[in-house]
Every structure is written in C-alpha cells, then in structure tokens.
Amino acid sequence: MSTSARWSVVALVVLIALGIALFNELGDDPAGPAAPAAPGAVSPRDKRDADTPAALAGPRAEAALAACPTPGAGPGPDVLRGIVVECAGDGAPVDVARAVAGRPTVLNLWAYWCGPCADELPAMAEYQRRAGSQVQVLTVHQDENETAGLLRLAELGVHLPTLQDGRRQIAAALQVPNVMPATVVLRADGSVAQILPRSFATADEIAAAVDPTIGVR
C-alpha cells in the first residue's frame, strides 16, 4: 500500500471515530432526560442545589416569615394557573393562582442583591400593617439563591410571606418588565389592576398608587 493510501485510511478511521463521538454526544442520554416536575410540585430549578431543607432551616428560623396564604375562593387568575412555587418560610408548595384568588393582592418582585428592593421592602411591610386584612402583600424572591433571600429579609426585619421563584415564572406569566423591584396589583377577581415597574420609598407612596385601583380605603 502506498504512503498516500495509508494516510487516506488513517484519515477515514479518524473521521469515523469523530462521527461516533458526535453521535453519542448528540444522542439520547441512556438515563433519559430529567423528568419534569410533577403537577402540583415545585420545580427543583427554582433554587440552588445547595439550598436543601437542612441548609435552609437556620435562615428560615432567622427570617421568621409569615405563613404563605392558603387557597382563596375560586381558581384565581388564568395566567397564573399551573404555577407552583415554594413558600420561602417553610418550603411548602404554593399554587400561586389559588393563593391570590378572591382577595386583593400586591405582589412585590425583588431579589436579594437589588439595592432599591432592600429600601422598598420595609415600606411594603408597613403598608401591609396599615392595610390589614383589606389586602395581602406577597413578596416574590426572583433569584435562585434562596438562602441569601432569607438572610436579606432577616437583616431588614421584614417578615412578609414570600414566594421563592428563581425562574421568574410569575413575572413572565404577568408580563412584568424585566426590572426590580416591580409591583403587580391584582384585584379580588384575579384581574391585573396595575403593573408598577418602580420602587417606593414609603408606605404612603404605596397606598397612593395601589389603594384607588382595588378599592382599599
């Protein structure tokens, strides 16, 4: 066999080997794709792998958050149906549509690293204190680092019920602009009264923006 022929054979073998490797890389994983979250279950992608129940126990105790709402009357807003996230306070799954059903709700979207969010959260807590049972304020932590979110709330002394939504499913469903903080005001019937992609400095500012749209006095 000539030298050129031998090199041709070598090149062919290399190409076949590369083709097999590429096929294996692109082919189905023998173990199969990761199974999606079961209906009614929280997606594991909403938080870091490091945020296990054991790792979160201390930060949860330190944050001492209020309990997330139990299901209200009715199915809740259509756009939020099927979204299930974790209650940051205790790790329980929360069906978001049902949690806001039948009551005026203020959703405050934030992340632990957001400076304006940290300035606004105490004002949200004060607004909730003043509004009482007329409206519920739910904060939504939009970062996978749940531990950091809990520690930020503990640092601020804010104990509002909080949803852990690392994938930002709620914001996507409600078509909230990609800014933080942002506030979504929902009427009792589940319709969106306002989307407010801005920060608030005081409870008075929040009340002035929110109350007229949902009939709170």
TrEMBL record:
Pfam families documented for this protein: Redoxin
Main location, first listed in the record: other
Subcellular location: Cell envelope
Domain Thioredoxin, residue spans: 64-215
Top-level taxon in the UniProt lineage: Bacteria
GO cellular component, one term: cell envelope
Location of the region described as Disordered in the Swiss-Prot/TrEMBL record: 33-53
GO biological process: cytochrome complex assembly
GO molecular function annotations of the record: oxidoreductase activity
Keywords: Cytochrome c-type biogenesis, Disulfide bond, Redox-active center, Signal-anchor, Transmembrane
Protein name: Membrane protein
Source organism: Mycolicibacterium obuense
Upper lineage: Bacteria, Bacillati, Actinomycetota, Actinomycetes, Mycobacteriales
